[in-house]
Amino acid sequence: MKLFVFWFALASAILVFSLASADTVEHTFTVQNKAITRLCNERVIVTVNGLYPGPTLEVREGDAVIIHVVNKSPYNITIHWHGIFQLFSAWADGPEYVTQCGIRPQHSYTYKFNVIQQEGTVWWHAHASVLRATVHGAFIIHPRSGKLPFPKPYKHVPIILGDWYDGNVVDIYEHVLAAGDVRVSDAFTINGLPGDLFNCSKQQTYKLKLRQGKTYLLRMINAAFNNNLFFKIANHKFTVVALDASYIEHYVTDVITIAPGQTADVLLKADQPIGNYYMAATPYVVGQPSPLFDNTTTRGLVVYEGYKSSLRDSKPIMPLLPPFNATAIANAFFTNITSMVGAPHWVPVPLEVDERMLITISINLERCPKNGTCLGLFNQKFSASMNNESFTLPVGKGYSMLEASFYNVSGVYTTDFPDYPTQTFDFTSPKNALDLTRVFTTTKTTKVKKLKFNSTVEVVFQNTAILNVQSHPMHLHGFSFHILAQGFGNYAAARDSVKFNLVNPQIRNTIAVPAGGWAVIRFQANNPGMWFVHCHVDDHQLWGLNMAFEVESGPTDSTSLPPPPADLPKC
C-alpha cells in the first residue's frame, strides 16, 4: 500500500505539472458519406473529413484535446478514444449507450479531455453500430519532453491494418444480426488499401518509401473487425519498443502479431540493399474453418530511394508468412515481451488485491425466434457471453449507463454481474463444444460489476471450447492493466498463480486471450466512471460478449466524476 501511495502521489504531481504546461489541440471531425472504389466496385462509406482511414491526431502528453464532431452522415455516431485513460473525464469515452447516447444526424457534439500520464500510439474509432469499419484513425501522443527511450527515428509512419466489406457495412450487419449469421470481410487493408493481390487493386497498394540507413517508427494499429493479424516485411527485422502506448524492453522479431484493438510501436531500419520489398499481413485464426474467416493477404510496397525497376528485377521480394493457425508464433510474440521498468509512465504491479474475478468467455447460440429464419449453427442465432451473461445495450431506456449511474436512475442496468461462472466444468475440453446444456444463452442482460474507488481488481479471462476455441481480444476502457500470466487449458490458481510476473509484466489495454486458454490481468480502479469491457472482435461484441465496471467516485471532489457536459447527446 505504501508503494501505491508513493506512485499515486508522484502521478498527481506529474498531472499538475503536465496541465500547467499543456497546449490545446483542437480539430473538427465532419462525419459524412463518401463514394470510393475498392475491389472494382464503387461503395458509399462513412468517413471523417472525407478520409479513409481518418485523420491522424498528434498531441503531446499533458495536452488538452477538443474535437468538434459534426454528424452529416445518416447514422447516429459516437467516437471512442481507444487507449486514452479519460482520467476523471469518463463522459468523453464514447461508447454508445454506455457513456453517452449517439450524436444524431445533422447534430454535433464536442469532446473535451486531457491526455495525461501516457505516451505512444493509441487510436480513435466510431463506437456506434459497426461504423468503426471505416471511421477510425491513429492518435499519436508525443512525450512532452521530446525524449524517447530509444534512438530518435527519422520519420513516424502510421500503419493501420484493417478490413474491407464489399457493400454497405451497416446493411450487411443488420442482416447478419437479424439472421444470427457470420459474414467475413472481403479483403484486408493497409492504410485503407487492399493491395495488388485483389482484382482492380494494383493501383490501390500502399507504398512506403525508405531512405537507406535511416530508421523509421511504424505506429501500427489493428483496426480490423474480426482477426488477429501477422505482419512482415521481406528481408527486414523489427524492434518493438512499445505496445498499447506502454514502453517495453526492446524486442527484435521478423513478425508482428497484433490483435484487433491493439497497437505497436515498431522500429524499422532500412538496412537492406536498395530495392523493392513487399510488406504483408495475413490472419492468425484458431478454431474456425476457412469459410468462416477471411483467409486473404493484403500487401503493400516498401521501396528504397534510388531504386529503379527493370524487367529483370522489377518483381518485389515477398515475405514468407506464417500459416493462419501458427499459434506457436503468435504465442511467442504475446508472451516473450516485458515492460520497461522505470520508463516514462511505468506503473508497478499493485500487490494487494481487493476484488478477484474469473470470467468465462464463450461463443453461444440464441434460439431462433418463432417463425424466424436463422442462419447460424443448427439454424439458430449466434450469441456470446461472459459468465453466461449475454450483454445487451440499454437501447430505448432514455439514459446512457453512465447517466443512469450519475443520476441514480434505476431500470437501465443492474449491478449483479457474477464474479465467477455459474457452472464449473472442463472449460476447454472439445467434448463440451456441442453440449446443448451449455451452448444456449438465456435472456439478454445489462449487468455491471461495481468497484470501490482505488480498489485493486484481478481478473482471470478463461476462454471456453463451447462451439469452438478462439482467441478473444478483450479491451478495457478507462485503464491499462498488467498482464500477470497467460496459458493454455483451464486456469488453476494453485498451479498458475506461481507463474505471475509481478516485476515487469506487459501493460496493455487489450489482451488477446489465448484460444483454448486463459489470461490474468490486474488493474487499479482509480478512475470513476462506467467502463466498458468487451471483445474487440465486432461479431462477438454485437452478439453480447461484453460487460462493464462501474467505478465509484473517490472521497474528494478531485477524485470524483464531474457532472456531464450540458450538451451531452440525449437518447
UniProtKB/TrEMBL annotation:
Coiled coil: none
Main localization of the protein described in the UniProt heading: secreted
Cofactor note: Binds 4 Cu cations per monomer.
Cofactor entry: Cu cation
Highest taxon above the source species: Eukaryota
InterPro entries: Cu-oxidase-like_N, Cu-oxidase_2nd, Cu-oxidase_C, Cu-oxidase_fam, Cu_oxidase_CS, Cu_oxidase_Cu_BS, Cupredoxin, CuRO_1_LCC
EC id: 1.10.3.2
GO terms classed as biological process: lignin catabolic process
Uppermost EC category: oxidoreductase
Keywords (A to Z) from UniProt: Apoplast, Copper, Glycoprotein, Lignin degradation, Metal-binding, Oxidoreductase, Repeat, Secreted, Signal
Location of the protein in the cell: Secreted, Extracellular space, Apoplast
GO cellular component: apoplast
Residues annotated as signal peptide: 1-22
Molecular function (Gene Ontology), one example: copper ion binding
UniProt record similarity statement: Belongs to the multicopper oxidase family.
Functional summary from the UniProt entry: Lignin degradation and detoxification of lignin-derived products.
Protein name as it appears in the record: Laccase
